[in-house]
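subagent[fold] <- orchestrator: predict structure for attached chain, return tokens only, no commentary.
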Amino acid sequence: HPSASVCRSQDEPFACGVFRWTIVIPEWVERDLSPAEMKALLAHEVAHLVRRDPLWQWLGEMLCTCFAFQPLNFVARRGWRQVAELLCDDWAVERQVPATMLASCLAQIAEGRLERGAGLMGLTAVGRV
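subagent[fold] -> orchestrator:
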């Protein structure tokens, strides 16, 4: 199977690549998660790669771009993404990742997303400096 690499980003973790698998991990995630939570996160992201989710997401983007006049494409793409997340959680747990570690990891990712979003909303409310 394709080689994999790990990169660092600013926002939140994700898996990408069709021919060269890549898992992108923000610095704050690497700093804030315990080793067990990091293992759970990596298992979840590897599941996206094994399931070929980057390819399916690309196809969904193409459908929504080429057929933007059909709003149901956007609904289907959103459902597709939600199901992919749940299936990747299941895949990780089936491979002996403790469900509690996965849940803790996902909760911290969601908390980080909310904290960054709250900061951005505050900037928007204040306006330009």
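orchestrator: received. Logging for downstream: The first helix runs from residue 27 to 32. Strands lie at 4-9, 14-16, 21-26.
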